[in-house]
Amino acid sequence: MATQEEKNRVRHRDEAVELIECYLQRHDLAPHGKLPSEREMCEMWGLNRATLRAALRRLIELGRIYSLKGSGTYVAPPKLERNLQDAKSTTESVRGAGHKLRTSVLEQDVIDASPIVAKSMGIRPGQRVLYLRRLRLIDGAPYMIETNYINLELCPRVLDYDFRDESLYRVLSYHNIFPCQGYESVGITYATDSEARHLQIESGDPLYFLTGVAKDQNGVPVEYFKSVARPDKVRFSSILRKRRVDPKGENQNEIGSSGF
User: Among 68, 67, 51, which Cα is nearest to 17's?
Assistant: First the structure.
Protein backbone atom coordinates (compact mmCIF):
# COMPACT_ATOMS: atom_id res chain seq x y z
CA MET A 1 0.00 0.00 0.00
CA ALA A 2 1.30 3.46 -0.90
CA THR A 3 2.42 5.67 1.95
CA GLN A 4 1.00 9.16 2.46
CA GLU A 5 4.30 10.59 1.25
CA GLU A 6 4.06 8.60 -2.00
CA LYS A 7 0.44 9.69 -2.50
CA ASN A 8 1.46 13.32 -2.02
CA ARG A 9 4.24 12.97 -4.60
CA VAL A 10 1.79 11.55 -7.15
CA ARG A 11 -0.74 14.32 -6.42
CA HIS A 12 1.89 17.05 -6.80
CA ARG A 13 3.13 15.43 -10.03
CA ASP A 14 -0.39 15.28 -11.46
CA GLU A 15 -1.00 18.92 -10.55
CA ALA A 16 2.22 19.85 -12.36
CA VAL A 17 1.12 17.79 -15.39
CA GLU A 18 -2.11 19.83 -15.54
CA LEU A 19 -0.15 23.10 -15.36
CA ILE A 20 2.05 22.06 -18.27
CA GLU A 21 -0.89 20.84 -20.37
CA CYS A 22 -2.76 24.11 -19.73
CA TYR A 23 0.35 26.01 -20.82
CA LEU A 24 0.51 24.03 -24.08
CA GLN A 25 -3.16 24.72 -24.81
CA ARG A 26 -3.03 28.39 -23.85
CA HIS A 27 0.01 29.08 -26.01
CA ASP A 28 -1.18 26.78 -28.82
CA LEU A 29 2.27 25.29 -29.28
CA ALA A 30 2.62 23.40 -32.56
CA PRO A 31 4.32 19.99 -32.82
CA HIS A 32 8.06 20.34 -32.19
CA GLY A 33 7.48 23.70 -30.51
CA LYS A 34 9.86 24.26 -27.60
CA LEU A 35 8.75 24.53 -23.97
CA PRO A 36 10.40 26.93 -21.51
CA SER A 37 13.45 25.70 -19.64
CA GLU A 38 13.04 23.68 -16.44
CA ARG A 39 14.21 26.69 -14.40
CA GLU A 40 11.63 28.96 -16.04
CA MET A 41 8.80 26.47 -15.49
CA CYS A 42 9.74 26.00 -11.83
CA GLU A 43 9.70 29.78 -11.33
CA MET A 44 6.40 30.21 -13.22
CA TRP A 45 4.52 27.73 -11.05
CA GLY A 46 6.50 27.62 -7.83
CA LEU A 47 7.50 23.98 -8.33
CA ASN A 48 10.56 22.18 -7.10
CA ARG A 49 12.78 20.55 -9.71
CA ALA A 50 11.93 16.96 -8.65
CA THR A 51 8.17 17.51 -9.06
CA LEU A 52 8.60 19.21 -12.43
CA ARG A 53 10.82 16.43 -13.76
CA ALA A 54 8.34 13.79 -12.58
CA ALA A 55 5.58 15.64 -14.48
CA LEU A 56 7.73 15.92 -17.62
CA ARG A 57 8.51 12.18 -17.47
CA ARG A 58 4.80 11.44 -17.20
CA LEU A 59 3.99 13.57 -20.25
CA ILE A 60 6.81 11.91 -22.20
CA GLU A 61 5.32 8.49 -21.30
CA LEU A 62 1.93 9.72 -22.55
CA GLY A 63 3.49 10.84 -25.83
CA ARG A 64 2.58 14.52 -25.34
CA ILE A 65 6.14 15.86 -25.28
CA TYR A 66 9.67 14.66 -25.96
CA SER A 67 13.08 15.69 -24.68
CA LEU A 68 16.36 16.16 -26.54
CA LYS A 69 19.45 15.95 -24.36
CA GLY A 70 21.24 19.29 -24.18
CA SER A 71 18.51 20.99 -26.22
CA GLY A 72 15.27 21.08 -24.26
CA THR A 73 11.69 19.80 -24.18
CA TYR A 74 9.36 19.91 -27.18
CA VAL A 75 5.73 19.26 -28.09
CA ALA A 76 5.35 15.79 -29.60
CA PRO A 77 3.51 15.39 -32.91
CA PRO A 78 0.08 13.73 -32.65
CA LYS A 79 0.06 9.96 -32.39
CA LEU A 80 -1.26 7.91 -35.27
CA GLU A 81 -4.81 6.87 -34.32
CA ARG A 82 -6.02 3.45 -35.43
CA ASN A 83 -9.63 2.37 -35.13
CA LEU A 84 -9.88 -1.26 -34.06
CA GLN A 85 -13.21 -1.58 -35.88
CA ASP A 86 -11.88 -0.96 -39.38
CA ALA A 87 -9.95 -3.34 -41.62
CA LYS A 88 -7.54 -0.81 -43.10
CA SER A 89 -3.98 -1.80 -43.86
CA THR A 90 -1.10 -0.02 -42.13
CA THR A 91 -0.41 1.82 -45.39
CA GLU A 92 -3.99 3.10 -45.59
CA SER A 93 -4.05 4.11 -41.90
CA VAL A 94 -0.75 5.99 -41.96
CA ARG A 95 -1.09 7.75 -45.30
CA GLY A 96 -4.76 8.45 -44.68
CA ALA A 97 -3.75 10.39 -41.56
CA GLY A 98 -1.37 12.54 -43.61
CA HIS A 99 1.89 10.87 -42.51
CA LYS A 100 4.73 9.57 -44.65
CA LEU A 101 5.26 5.82 -44.47
CA ARG A 102 8.50 4.03 -45.23
CA THR A 103 9.05 0.26 -45.07
CA SER A 104 12.16 -1.82 -44.57
CA VAL A 105 11.88 -5.57 -45.22
CA LEU A 106 13.68 -7.38 -42.39
CA GLU A 107 12.92 -10.95 -43.52
CA GLN A 108 11.04 -12.56 -46.40
CA ASP A 109 10.85 -16.30 -47.02
CA VAL A 110 8.57 -19.22 -47.87
CA ILE A 111 8.17 -21.46 -44.83
CA ASP A 112 6.06 -24.36 -43.55
CA ALA A 113 3.09 -23.19 -41.50
CA SER A 114 3.52 -23.96 -37.80
CA PRO A 115 0.57 -25.55 -35.95
CA ILE A 116 -0.42 -22.16 -34.50
CA VAL A 117 -0.28 -20.39 -37.85
CA ALA A 118 -2.10 -23.26 -39.58
CA LYS A 119 -4.90 -23.33 -36.98
CA SER A 120 -5.34 -19.56 -37.18
CA MET A 121 -5.55 -19.61 -40.98
CA GLY A 122 -7.59 -22.78 -41.32
CA ILE A 123 -4.91 -24.61 -43.31
CA ARG A 124 -2.95 -27.79 -42.71
CA PRO A 125 0.30 -27.71 -40.67
CA GLY A 126 3.30 -27.67 -42.97
CA GLN A 127 1.46 -25.94 -45.79
CA ARG A 128 3.69 -23.38 -47.52
CA VAL A 129 3.09 -19.76 -46.55
CA LEU A 130 4.83 -16.46 -47.20
CA TYR A 131 6.64 -15.19 -44.11
CA LEU A 132 7.13 -11.43 -44.22
CA ARG A 133 8.65 -9.31 -41.45
CA ARG A 134 8.82 -5.55 -41.98
CA LEU A 135 9.89 -2.45 -40.07
CA ARG A 136 7.43 0.42 -40.51
CA LEU A 137 8.52 4.05 -40.12
CA ILE A 138 6.23 7.08 -39.74
CA ASP A 139 7.75 10.36 -40.90
CA GLY A 140 11.17 8.73 -40.64
CA ALA A 141 10.73 7.37 -37.09
CA PRO A 142 10.36 3.59 -36.50
CA TYR A 143 7.05 2.71 -34.91
CA MET A 144 6.08 -0.90 -35.70
CA ILE A 145 7.46 -4.31 -36.65
CA GLU A 146 4.88 -6.30 -38.61
CA THR A 147 5.02 -10.04 -39.19
CA ASN A 148 2.65 -11.48 -41.80
CA TYR A 149 1.89 -15.04 -42.92
CA ILE A 150 0.07 -15.32 -46.28
CA ASN A 151 -1.63 -18.40 -47.68
CA LEU A 152 0.27 -18.98 -50.93
CA GLU A 153 -2.37 -21.33 -52.32
CA LEU A 154 -4.67 -18.32 -52.64
CA CYS A 155 -2.08 -16.06 -54.22
CA PRO A 156 1.17 -17.75 -55.31
CA ARG A 157 2.31 -14.71 -57.33
CA VAL A 158 2.58 -12.60 -54.17
CA LEU A 159 6.24 -13.71 -54.19
CA ASP A 160 6.90 -11.59 -57.29
CA TYR A 161 6.56 -8.25 -55.52
CA ASP A 162 8.95 -5.95 -53.66
CA PHE A 163 7.32 -5.10 -50.34
CA ARG A 164 9.63 -2.18 -49.69
CA ASP A 165 7.50 -0.27 -52.18
CA GLU A 166 4.26 -2.23 -52.40
CA SER A 167 1.42 -2.44 -49.88
CA LEU A 168 0.60 -6.06 -49.05
CA TYR A 169 -3.14 -5.46 -49.28
CA ARG A 170 -2.74 -3.67 -52.60
CA VAL A 171 -0.81 -6.63 -53.99
CA LEU A 172 -3.58 -8.98 -52.85
CA SER A 173 -6.16 -6.74 -54.53
CA TYR A 174 -4.33 -7.20 -57.86
CA HIS A 175 -5.43 -10.83 -57.59
CA ASN A 176 -9.03 -10.10 -56.53
CA ILE A 177 -8.37 -10.77 -52.85
CA PHE A 178 -9.72 -8.02 -50.60
CA PRO A 179 -9.11 -8.43 -46.84
CA CYS A 180 -12.16 -6.78 -45.33
CA GLN A 181 -13.00 -8.67 -42.13
CA GLY A 182 -11.44 -10.75 -39.38
CA TYR A 183 -10.38 -10.22 -35.80
CA GLU A 184 -7.58 -8.50 -33.92
CA SER A 185 -6.50 -8.46 -30.28
CA VAL A 186 -4.23 -5.96 -28.52
CA GLY A 187 -2.03 -6.64 -25.51
CA ILE A 188 1.23 -5.53 -23.94
CA THR A 189 4.66 -7.08 -24.39
CA TYR A 190 8.26 -6.00 -23.78
CA ALA A 191 10.89 -5.30 -26.39
CA THR A 192 13.46 -7.99 -27.15
CA ASP A 193 17.01 -6.92 -27.93
CA SER A 194 16.31 -7.26 -31.66
CA GLU A 195 13.03 -5.32 -31.50
CA ALA A 196 14.64 -2.59 -29.40
CA ARG A 197 17.45 -2.20 -31.93
CA HIS A 198 15.07 -1.82 -34.86
CA LEU A 199 12.61 0.43 -33.02
CA GLN A 200 15.36 2.57 -31.47
CA ILE A 201 14.20 2.03 -27.89
CA GLU A 202 15.59 0.27 -24.83
CA SER A 203 15.40 -3.51 -24.43
CA GLY A 204 12.53 -4.31 -22.09
CA ASP A 205 10.52 -1.18 -22.93
CA PRO A 206 6.75 -1.81 -23.15
CA LEU A 207 5.17 -2.28 -26.58
CA TYR A 208 1.70 -2.90 -27.91
CA PHE A 209 1.35 -6.48 -29.16
CA LEU A 210 -1.23 -7.06 -31.89
CA THR A 211 -2.28 -10.37 -33.35
CA GLY A 212 -5.13 -11.52 -35.55
CA VAL A 213 -6.45 -12.91 -38.80
CA ALA A 214 -7.65 -11.06 -41.91
CA LYS A 215 -10.28 -12.69 -44.13
CA ASP A 216 -11.29 -11.90 -47.68
CA GLN A 217 -14.68 -10.89 -49.05
CA ASN A 218 -15.77 -14.55 -48.94
CA GLY A 219 -14.73 -15.08 -45.31
CA VAL A 220 -11.64 -17.11 -46.25
CA PRO A 221 -8.58 -16.49 -44.01
CA VAL A 222 -5.85 -14.86 -46.07
CA GLU A 223 -3.42 -13.57 -43.49
CA TYR A 224 -2.28 -14.28 -39.95
CA PHE A 225 -0.38 -11.37 -38.44
CA LYS A 226 1.40 -10.32 -35.28
CA SER A 227 2.98 -6.96 -34.70
CA VAL A 228 4.68 -4.89 -32.01
CA ALA A 229 4.25 -1.11 -31.92
CA ARG A 230 5.71 1.74 -29.92
CA PRO A 231 3.03 3.19 -27.60
CA ASP A 232 4.47 6.70 -28.00
CA LYS A 233 3.72 6.58 -31.74
CA VAL A 234 0.23 5.10 -32.01
CA ARG A 235 -3.10 5.23 -30.19
CA PHE A 236 -5.86 2.64 -30.58
CA SER A 237 -9.50 3.64 -30.39
CA SER A 238 -12.83 1.93 -30.67
CA ILE A 239 -16.51 2.82 -30.89
CA LEU A 240 -18.65 1.46 -28.06
CA ARG A 241 -22.31 0.64 -28.64
CA LYS A 242 -24.77 -0.34 -25.96
CA ARG A 243 -28.26 -1.48 -26.84
CA ARG A 244 -30.93 -0.16 -24.50
CA VAL A 245 -34.70 -0.21 -24.37
CA ASP A 246 -36.59 3.09 -24.20
CA PRO A 247 -39.81 3.50 -22.17
CA LYS A 248 -41.88 2.55 -25.24
CA GLY A 249 -40.06 -0.79 -25.46
CA GLU A 250 -38.13 0.10 -28.60
CA ASN A 251 -34.44 -0.78 -28.93
CA GLN A 252 -32.01 2.11 -29.30
CA ASN A 253 -28.24 2.31 -29.54
CA GLU A 254 -26.06 4.41 -27.26
CA ILE A 255 -22.75 5.32 -28.87
CA GLY A 256 -19.51 6.33 -27.21
CA SER A 257 -15.81 6.06 -27.86
CA SER A 258 -12.79 4.69 -26.12
CA GLY A 259 -9.05 4.78 -26.74
CA PHE A 260 -5.68 3.81 -25.32
Answer: 51
